[in-house]
Write a structure and sequence with these properties.
- The structure is a single chain.
- The protein is of the alpha+beta class.
- The chain has one domain: GIY-YIG endonuclease, CATH 3.40.1440.
- The protein is about 45% helix and about 30% strand.
- The chain is built from 4 helices and 3 strands.
- The longest helix is centred in the last third of the chain and has 14 residues.
- The protein is globular, with a radius of gyration of 12 Å.
């Protein structure tokens, strides 16, 4: 069975967005909630997963994570989230 990877965006208590990639979104979200995720989510507690997209390769997921984090502003990220609903 081919492994799948996901890019996800979390909404935090401070109304900020955090983007990451993983092979298990629910497990990674629990790690963020417990303070074992990223440094950013230890300071900005996540509320919920607002976006996720599946990829067939780790490389593709990492490229999309980079694009979202470094190329999109908050308005564009919110548009991306809205288009996925």
């Amino acid at each position: 069975m081919a492994e799948k990877y996901y890019v996800y965006i979390l909404l935090t208590q401070r109304d900020t967005l955090y983007c990451g990639y993983t092979d298990n979104v629910e497990k990674r979200f629990r790690e963020h909630l417990s303070g074992k995720g990223a440094k950013y989510t230890r300071a900005n507690k996540p509320l919920k997963i607002v976006y996720q997209k599946e990829f067939s390769s780790k490389s593709d997921a990492q490229k999309e994570e980079y694009r979202i984090k470094h190329k999109l502003n908050k308005k564009q990220k919110l548009e991306l989230i809205g288009s996925a609903l």
